[in-house]
User: What shape does this take?
Amino acid sequence: MIATDDRKTRLQDAIARKGMRYTKQREHVFNILMDKRDHPTADEVFVRARRKMPSISLATVYNCLDTLVECDLVRQVHVERESTRYCPNLSEHAHFHCEKTGQVFDIDFPEAFREGIISQLPSGFEMDAVDILIRGKSN
Amino acid sequence: MIATDDRKTRLQDAIARKGMRYTKQREHVFNILMDKRDHPTADEVFVRARRKMPSISLATVYNCLDTLVECDLVRQVHVERESTRYCPNLSEHAHFHCEKTGQVFDIDFPEAFREGIISQLPSGFEMDAVDILIRGKSN
DNA sequence: CGCTTATCTGGAACCATTACAATTAAAAAA
DNA sequence: TTTTTTAATTGTAATGGTTCCAGATAAGCG
Assistant: This one.
């Protein structure tokens, strides 16, 4: 299908741009993140990956995830010191962590926020990125 | 001195309120955090603590820090998945993480921000707290 | 097709934190 | 004050997520 072709092309381009190699493992891990955008941990990705690729190793899953982050295709999400989660949503957004279920949700946040935060910085501080984690309960 | 007395009273009250016991170790660890508000890790607190109390153990430092968090006297600060840091600033603020030096700074943020974030939440989401981490370079 | 070298793999190593069991010491009771 | 109770401290072992390593495999260029 066209959507899947686009995805593959995007992955190929991003990897080529960094001078790295296209591998089945990288493609498979990327597809897992794109198919179910539920902020899985490396271990959860490993479990899903093995279903269609039983020979993949946990080390490779970590390697692939690092590569995807490096290629700006996915982002890491940190909740306290829990296992790192992975998020393929590249638009600027915050994360909501439900204290009851442990789930993580994407929350859009207005453009104005970024500016507001920057305007609050003392001189001499230069911002590269903001991570906003909202803790609470959903439903 | 009066300032130190106030501090001690505050610690005693907070601990008593939770029905816990006042110990030299807890007092010592609390003083370390209050004296130099530079967001130390448990290990850094351990190093400082041993200078005046050579017999204190790392396990105790972790226990004391947990207690202080429990008693709402200090807060944990998380930067990516690095070691947990501890912050005695209880007012609502963000943290700035300098990518060059690794230092963490407190950044005030306007009341309006909290409201703004809450107003952005879809219905069914209830916020307890927000953690804002600004990544960038200072000086 | 062959060659070079990045990537993959399984397992060992690492590091922050937690768990545990024995010892010590708050602080309540006598 | 002394005794008693039991929470807190201590040193060490265990845990869990992640990284490191060395050998095997496979991209992708010529």
